[in-house]
Amino acid sequence: MIRINLDYLKEQPQFDTYQERIKKIHQGMNDLSLPGNDFLGWATLPLNLDHNEIEQIKKTAQEIRSRVDILVVVGIGGSYLGARAVIEALNGLRPLAKKPEIIFLGQTFSSTYTAQVLSYLQGKKFAINVISKSGTTTETSIAFRLVRNLLISQVGKDAARNLIVATTDKNKGVLRNLSLKEGYQMFVLPENIGGRYSVFTPVGLLPIAVAGINIDDLLAGALNGYQRYNNADLESAANRYAITRNALYQANKKVELFVTYEPQLHELQEWFKQLFGESEGKEHQGIFPTAATFSTDLHSLGQFIQEGSPLLFETILNIKQPVLNLSIPHDDDNLDELNYLAGKTLNEVNEKAMMGTLEAHSHTGRVNNIILEIPDLTTKTLGELLYFFMYACAVSSYLLEVNPFDQPGVEVYKKNMFKLLGKK
Amino acid sequence: MIRINLDYLKEQPQFDTYQERIKKIHQGMNDLSLPGNDFLGWATLPLNLDHNEIEQIKKTAQEIRSRVDILVVVGIGGSYLGARAVIEALNGLRPLAKKPEIIFLGQTFSSTYTAQVLSYLQGKKFAINVISKSGTTTETSIAFRLVRNLLISQVGKDAARNLIVATTDKNKGVLRNLSLKEGYQMFVLPENIGGRYSVFTPVGLLPIAVAGINIDDLLAGALNGYQRYNNADLESAANRYAITRNALYQANKKVELFVTYEPQLHELQEWFKQLFGESEGKEHQGIFPTAATFSTDLHSLGQFIQEGSPLLFETILNIKQPVLNLSIPHDDDNLDELNYLAGKTLNEVNEKAMMGTLEAHSHTGRVNNIILEIPDLTTKTLGELLYFFMYACAVSSYLLEVNPFDQPGVEVYKKNMFKLLGKK
């Protein structure tokens, strides 16, 4: 269960004044009468799981795990951010069980990055999961061509065929046709779910399962999310979060700093930034989503937050129980003068840093703070949290009266680039 | 040489109106008559190098390289961001020469992160470089106690002594006293240089040298920076950058998005964020520094930049010559429809993506763009770039009439935390 704590706001939002709008939004999402209603598949997905498909994902993941040491996920934006967020949050930055390693490619045109990954893969056993709705996303298709060539050069065309899985559109597109012709195994990217809402589809689930994470637990968490947050209740944490964001936005706080105290949540922050930035940022509206990891970044952005331009508000994700914990040992010499902490856990210190910072930023610095509290960082809780953010983001976008599910602005650079590259 | 291109601004700053202020700032930095003048050591450092110390750093680095597989750098904020930025920028995210690996610790209270790093180090050959002016920074001293205990448990107290190097204050402090007593080798963190301006001191140089990077080249680049940017010339790229930032800030653009097209510059972006955020963010002023890696984040923040709230401007770092390059191969079947790019390099595509994006954001999206152009990503050019940013940041802060070299706001959370932890 996600709890929202609004004690560190300078002023409480007038929740009651939002009741009608929240009701209408919830109603509209249910009867599919709002803009973007073609892309609401994610909202009820936890209820409508295709269990055959999930079993097939688990089976494929198990095969990949048994056959290779590395899975290369080739995709960009919504095609990889969800999986990367979940894998890094649950396995950490230096996972103890190393195999298979998950490497992300096809999210950049950087020649240096791509060349270094290809060098690293040389002589190693790897499989590929290429993820693209159309197959024409340039970053992804270039990387796929390069890494597929490497795989074929290492194992031959026939063996390569059995080490490539495509996640793509059900009915059409370049990647679908290529995969059919080459005989690659395919999973479907549902038509009514956009990339940034796709973490519970095969887009997210296959890489997550290959990383050794229990996807049934993740989906059970998503179902909890559906049951707890898909409603018009003003007491729901998701609605309260959406309303509070809106009230802060109306009060000219247009930058949200999403804060965690765990470095392994960096990729969750990246997922969050895409989710909110792409959903809300249109028609010259929206909160600019950015992120920081404390206490690390208190020694970097802390000064600005405390005393700089008063642009931003903070949303703190507080995890009550860490994945691993450590005690601070006693030292007879105590030359570092740390014995006053001996016997305490590192997590107790992290919590006190958080309390001290909340006090510093909200009371001394006059910055608004929203706290989202989760009990732990288990797979199930993370599933619930992802659903929570997706639902809150949709409500938040509808409160701005924008369509949460399109991204017309992303096409502009592509068109210009294709022209410069001479694409017909 | 760094070139600044202002063709993608909606309006040119009135540079002439800044001439007097730029002169006064340059004069004041030279005769030490401005606030923060005690911390201007970095500005003339490239002229005043201590060559004995640099030789000692190289010798120590060589010893560490020959004896261990991993260097653990224990520090937070300015004590590690510069080194990490340089090492990752030059060696890349998956360096081909793997040894020694550089691991950063002591920048977080996260028990999971710390426990995973300690597990990873178990049974491995490693050395420690602990970096702290006072030795009382809590994140760093807890991590140092833990990792030192691990090292002692693995190699014994005597051998450990020779695998620990401390970078700390010359005359006082807990870490200095501890190191004297234990007999650790020491390097000095100069008194007149603050953490975020310390990359060319032993703070940055030792880890950088251990990573196999030529620090003479880096310092030669810094000297180029001194010669090219430490002046009152309105044509200088550093002054033009500082003035343009100020003009945009006055026009209510209070968020700067520092953009690169190379993922390996992520840590340079983090260094940049600390440098500008901590230097400018005071007295309710300053531009909020944030960053993105394109084209990756065009599929995440791109929509917001193109069509969202008009808060921000972009500063693009354009590298003409990439570290590595790759050609896109021809494919007989062309099922992915990419043959129109065959024979082109990946870097050509990256450049076209940049041009297309500049056009999209500045013309269609009406976002101001500053382009900083560097010829390549060699060690020498990077040294110049770091100096460029430090000088521009000082000028930019003085234009806001704030002291670029203090950080009074960082202390607030620490005081609260110490109270909660019961520290006397």
Give structural notes:
The structure is a homodimer of 424-residue chains. The first copy, chain A, is built from 16 helices and ten strands. The first copy, chain A, has 424 residues and is of the alpha/beta class. In chain A, the strands form two sheets. Chain A has a five-stranded mixed sheet with strand order 1-10-9-7-8, sandwiched between helices. Chain A has a five-stranded parallel sheet with strand order 3-2-4-5-6, with helices on both faces. Chain A is globular, with a radius of gyration of 23 Å. Chain A starts with a strand and ends with a helix.
Which helices and strands appear, and what pairs or packs with what?
Two copies of one chain form a homodimer.
Chain A lengths: L2 E3 L13 H12 L10 H4 L6 H17 L2 E5 L6 H11 L9 E5 L5 H11 L4 E6 L6 H18 L1 H5 L2 E5 L5 H9 L2 E4 L13 H9 L4 H15 L7 H14 L4 E6 L5 H15 L7 E6 L8 H6 L4 E10 L24 H19 L4 E8 L2 H21 L10 H12 L3
Parallel strand pairs in A: 2-3, 2-4, 4-5, 5-6, 7-8, 7-9, 9-10
Antiparallel strand pairs in A: 1-10
Helix pairs in contact in A: 3-9, 4-9, 4-12, 10-15, 11-15, 12-15
